Amino acid sequence: MLYRARPADGIAWVAGASSGIGRGVALELARRGYAVAASARRADALRDLAAEASVLNGRIEPAPLDMTDREAVARLAPTLETRLGPIALVFLNAGVSRPDPPGDLGGENFRQTFEVNVLGLANGLNAALNAMRPRGRGQIAFNASIAGYGGLPAPAAYGASKAAAIHLAESLKFSAGRYGIAIQVVTHGFVRTPLTAENRFKMPFLMDCETAARRICDGFEKAGFEITFPRRLSWAVKAMNLLPYPLYFALAGQFAPKRSH
Fold first, then answer.
1. Is the dihedral of CA 77, 81, 86, 88 positive or negative?
2. In this predicted model, what pLDDT tens digit does every residue of 202-232 receive, in sequence order?
3. 150 touches 241 (CB < 8 A)
4. Whether the model pTM is above 0.90
5. How many CB atoms lie within 10 A of CB 71?
6. Closest CA relative to residue 98, chosen from 115, 84, 81
7. Between residues 98 and 114, which one has the greater pLDDT?
8. Is the model more confident about 197 or about 113?
């Protein structure tokens, strides 16, 4: 049986909690009775988040952090455990999407996307695993996307970074499981957040952030390796990737933005 964290086991740590899905999950976990350490670069947003959670069953403790600062991330975990208690559940959500400008594929925006979405994720995983391994139990989930299932007509760096996140989760499941640590990956569709507000195309099955947060927290309690929603979309995209490339490209191409004249 996979380990499933409970508020009585220790605290939850949510990275990327200042807005969007991370913020929603931090509030939902506090609503379910957790003491939540909320990390992000924006200390002011974390203070507002903690104030909003003051009426809930649990509480939120701000823990300002840049996930790309490997040494700072490594220091935070033992600091949290000393101050708040053992880390039982971790949700690594920090992420960005910065499209490459025309003629600059692999430039600064590409580098920043991978630095946050992949290296920042690895920094958080390293810290969480090091905290949980000696106890022989823990639960770590991180936010990917159905964009990581296969190449789609979307910013190349974002999709590739989410594919790397899914691959990393699959690989770590084997080694972490030997220490009693459950690994989960969240592959969601379109959620109404500041990130998706920048999209200039129709987003099928668009979901509000509060509903998404409940789905994710339900998944922490009940789901297996993958927490995915809405299934009407995620299963269809996953099935597309089983097709031969000519069919796959024909279907995926339907989502490509139309050229303006």
1. negative
2. 676 778 989 999 999 999 999 999 999 999 9
3. yes
4. yes
5. 8
6. 115
7. 114
8. 113
Q: Fold for domain 7-255?
A: Rossmann fold (3.40.50)
Report the percentage of the chain scoring pLDDT > 90: 80
Measured between alpha carbons, how far is 152 from 66 in angstroms, rounded to an integer?
29
Q: Given 3, 34, 149, 158, which residue is catalytic?
A: 158
In whole angstroms, give the CA distance from residue 70 to residue 56.
Answer: 32
* Span between the terminal Cα atoms of the chain, in Å: 57
Structure tokens at 205: 């099955």
3-state secondary structure (DSSP) of residue 144:
coil
- Catalytic, 158? Answer yes
List phi, psi (to 5°) of 93: -120, -10
Residue located via tokens 């946050």: 116
* Distance, CA of 130 to CA of 79 (rounded, Å): 13
Domain residue ranges of the chain, discontinuous segments joined by +: 7-255
Tokens of 64: 């300002």
Q: Which helix (H) or strand (E) holds 173?
A: helix 156-177
